[in-house]
Protein: Glycerophosphodiester phosphodiesterase
Amino acid sequence: MTKVIAHRGSKGTHPENTIAAFLEAVDCQCDGIELDVQYTKDKVLVVIHDNSVDRTTNGRGEVDHLTLQEIQQLDAGSWFDEIYRDQRVPLLTEVLELLKEREFKGLLNIEIKTDEKPYMGIEEDLVKVMQSQPWPFDYLYSSFNLASLELAQQLDPTAPKAYIIGVSPKKIKQARGLSFISAIHPKIDWVKAQGERISAYPKAVRPWTVNDELDMQDCFRKKIAGIHTDYPREAMRYRRLMYP
Ligand code: G3P
Ligand code: MG
Structure:
């Protein structure tokens, strides 16, 4: 059955990449959770999507120009809704501990956000955290940046690696030939353009961002490996209706 993966927590209904969004994902019992990891100025792994804090907090500046202490003072929820004003940019370790405490048993998709900034050393630090204890959930590393995945493969060879791809035929072909890449995460547009041929692709395919009900149903019918969605609760409901 197609896995439902909560994109940035539950981005559609909660402030993305916050504890509130991850709690919602756990609560709706979806199969997976995706989050984005970046470095602060003092090289702490934090969970935030953009390279700057401007869009999703009340602060200003690039994530890697702010210390953890500076970032932790920011309100990461009010921009979405005033009721989330207590939300902060979480540390990766905070999210991991939360998932453990809430007995999340699904798949955690850790996106290494090195497509715009290389963040030297981030893969090593990330793998150290992931190997620091036996987490009660499965995890995989994903990235738009192949070099980060190659490094993660050297450091943590048993964890799956997924190559995030837009719609580039070149990258899709390249991914086919890389044995250490177990899955591709393309844009939903690419999957739709493939039609029924998608089932012949030799690796797991988990598109993003699948928010439209008909697209979700189409992916479920085609038995696509997984979908990243901003609305995991709704997606779970649609899937249950199709497969009671
Ligand atoms: O991993 C799928 C998706 O998260 C990639 O795009 O920009 O939302 O991180 P983005
Ligand atoms: Mg992401």
Observations:
- Residues 232-242 form the longest helix (11 residues).
- The domain at 3-36+102-242 is CATH 3.20.20.190 (TIM Barrel).
- The mean pLDDT is 97.
- The chain has one domain: 3-36+102-242.
